[in-house]
């Protein structure tokens, strides 16, 4: 690692994490590196883990995972995230089901992969916004809630018409049991 430009301090941190894993593996019974990362964040000295510390821990556990699973030495490249990222993974299962149903519908309809990916991303962000406003089903979302996603508190439009159309296309699609409440 030293030859690849890692600092002595960073190398010591990785060594510390390996020692911590050896000391605690029988106590926590880790299943995956993601479990290790989450346990490490939760068992830190401070009650709340800072964003910076979480970033460094995630990076270190990704390095350890890549080395163990793929035999790849650290080279500063991120090949795959340790933890899933994006709005979709923060959604409630019912909202994930809406996104999954749309994805199946769009693939069957023959839409391009890039179009599907773009719509899924925007739809997930929209549903996460609604979830953060306290909604747990599509049926509880009102027109005012929808408008608050597209317009700021001063009444200024903050997202483009194209953005609106992409999200609208999801809720106009055939969503199985969610079709009625989506409209």
User: Helix segment count?
Assistant: 8
> What distance separates the N and C termini?
55 Å
Helix content: 55-70%
Query: How would a crystallographer describe the biggest sheet?
Result: none
Beta-strand percent range:
under 5%
How would you characterize the overall build of this protein?
The protein folds into 2 domains: 8-70; 88-182. 61% of the residues lie in helices and 0% in strands. The protein is built from 8 helices and no strands. It has helices spanning 8-28, 33-42, 51-70, 93-108, 113-132, 143-150, 161-172, 179-182. Helix 2 packs antiparallel against helix 3 (51-70), helix 4 (93-108) packs antiparallel against helix 5 (113-132) and helix 5 packs across helix 7.
What keywords describe this structure?
183 residues; mainly alpha; 2 domains; 8 helices; 61% helix; elongated
Secondary structure topology:
Elements: H1 8-28, H2 33-42, H3 51-70, H4 93-108, H5 113-132, H6 143-150, H7 161-172, H8 179-182
In short:
The chain has 183 residues and is mainly alpha-helical. 61% of the residues lie in helices and 0% in strands.
């Amino acid at each position: 690692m030293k030859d690849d430009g890692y600092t002595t301090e960073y190398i010591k941190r990785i060594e510390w994490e390996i020692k911590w894993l050896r000391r605690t593996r029988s106590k926590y019974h880790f299943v995956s590196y993601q479990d290790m990362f989450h346990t490490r964040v939760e068992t830190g000295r401070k009650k709340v883990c800072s964003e910076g510390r979480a970033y460094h821990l995630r990076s270190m556990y990704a390095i350890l995972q890549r080395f163990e699973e793929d035999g790849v030495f650290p080279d500063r490249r991120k090949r795959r995230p340790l933890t899933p990222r994006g709005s979709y993974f923060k959604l409630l299962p019912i909202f994930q089901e809406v996104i999954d149903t749309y994805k199946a519908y769009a693939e069957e309809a023959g839409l391009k992969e890039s179009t599907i990916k773009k719509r899924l991303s925007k739809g997930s962000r929209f549903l996460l916004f609604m979830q953060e406003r306290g909604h747990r089903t599509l049926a509880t979302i009102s027109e005012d809630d929808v408008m608050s996603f597209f317009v700021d508190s001063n009444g200024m439009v903050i997202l483009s018409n194209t953005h609106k159309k992409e999200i609208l296309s999801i809720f106009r699609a055939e969503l199985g049991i969610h079709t009625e409440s989506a409209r």
